[in-house]
Automatic annotation (TrEMBL), chain A:
Gene3D superfamilies: Winged helix-like DNA-binding domain superfamily/Winged helix DNA-binding domain. It holds the Pfam family PadR. InterPro entries: Metal_resp_DNA-bind_regulator, Tscrpt_reg_PadR_N, WH-like_DNA-bd_sf, WH_DNA-bd_sf. The lineage of its organism: Bacteria, Bacillati, Actinomycetota, Actinomycetes, Kitasatosporales. This is Helix-turn-helix transcriptional regulator. It comes from Streptomyces alfalfae. It comes from the Bacteria. Residues 14-87 form the Transcription regulator PadR N-terminal domain.
Automatic annotation (TrEMBL), chain B:
It comes from the Bacteria. This is Uncharacterized protein. The chain crosses the membrane at residues 117-141, 153-178, 184-206. NCBIfam families: perm_prefix_1. Keywords: Membrane, Transmembrane, Transmembrane helix.
Length: 115, 220
């Protein structure tokens, strides 16, 4: 999928990969790419302002973490509001793909609807 | 030393270009830039682990990241909102000073005092708008879309408050010189001068960020 197509779903992707636990920027990118099998084209830099915005909205919280001898990294974590928003994004996506799928791949016509 | 002939590191070159392109509160900006630099270095390290040379790894990381031109608008948008919130907080925190100033200056009956009292009320209204902005750009923004022009409104509310307080300071100085209860008016004048000084700097920074955002359209 092209970068432009992915952009509209970035918030949902970020929230979803953070569901299992806190991650820092690069680990978030790696998780998105791993889960999508590398099929999603993402300008990796775009996640940083997006994470900033999701934190401002209260969907994520973040803190600096540093391991001994390493540069510090900012780790992000889902908040309760973030979990609720993710559930909403999932429901909306399921509904959307079901509706588009029904049009693109119509099943056998129901008798009452034949013209 | 051979460093003079070495080509600059692509990651550091990218980071300086990004730093130059963005404006906003120092803390928010340095945090964002540090995170993005860390992301580039982590990506480059992953490429190096896969066998790329150090320079090639850094070049690949920068290419995958997206150009500064492409990323700067979204980053600047966040920094502009951070600056608007910073300015809004400053203006909102001056509200008690403004009310004290209004209270002190309306005590007298000279036209100078009346004018200063009106100006303090105008500035108080700006402080209330600023407080509303803090709410609208925070968690409330999950439910309400943040109006595109809100940072502009904050920039001008801050400017109005600071200009009103500058004129109020002048009025109160004149009134204090003419009045018998001059210590009270002088106190009000000091409050208004202090408010002007605090708000003016932040409002100027906010106008600068808004100017950047208006010239660079924000996507997404």
């Amino acid at each position: 999928m092209k970068a432009d197509a992915v952009r509209g779903h970035l918030d949902g992707l970020l929230l979803a990969v953070l569901e299992p636990g806190p991650l820092h920027g690069y680990a978030i990118i790696a998780a998105v790419q791993r889960r999508s099998g590398g099929a999603l084209e993402l300008r990796t830099g775009t996640i940083y302002p997006a994470l900033n915005r999701l934190e401002r909205l209260g969907l994520l919280s973040s803190s600096w973490e540093s391991a001994a001898g390493e540069r510090r990294r900012r780790a992000y974590e889902l908040t309760d509001a973030g979990r609720a928003t993710l559930a909403g994004e999932r429901a909306a996506w399921t509904e959307f793909t079901a509706a588009i799928g029904a049009v693109l791949n119509p099943g056998p016509q129901r008798p009452g609807l034949a013209t | 030393m051979s460093t003079a002939t070495r080509r600059p590191d692509p990651v550091e070159e990218y980071v300086s270009e990004l730093t130059a392109a963005l404006h906003g509160p120092a803390k928010a900006k340095s945090r964002l830039v540090e995170e993005m630099r860390g992301g580039l270095l982590d990506t480059a390290a992953a490429h190096a682990e896969d066998g790329a040379s150090e320079e090639e790894a850094a070049r690949l990381a920068v290419r995958e990241f997206g150009t500064v031109e492409a990323l700067a608008p979204a980053c600047q948008h966040e920094l502009t909102i951070a600056q608007a919130r910073h300015t809004a907080r400053t203006v909102a925190l001056t509200a008690p000073f403004l009310l004290a100033c209004w209270h002190l200056s309306r005590a007298g009956d000279t036209p100078w005092q009346a004018l200063a009292a009106h100006l303090a009320l105008i500035a108080t209204a700006a402080a209330m708008l600023a407080a509303a902005t803090l709410a609208a750009t925070g968690t409330l923004a999950r439910r309400l879309p943040t109006p595109h022009r809100l940072p502009l409104a904050v920039a001008w509310a801050g400017t109005t408050a600071s200009a009103a307080m500058a004129v109020a300071t002048l009025c109160l100085t004149v009134a204090a010189a003419l009045a018998t209860n001059w210590p009270l008016l002088a106190a009000a004048g000091i409050l208004s001068a202090a408010t002007h000084a605090i708000v003016a700097t932040s409002a100027r920074a906010c106008r600068r960020c808004v100017g950047l955002n208006l010239t660079k359209p924000v996507r997404g």
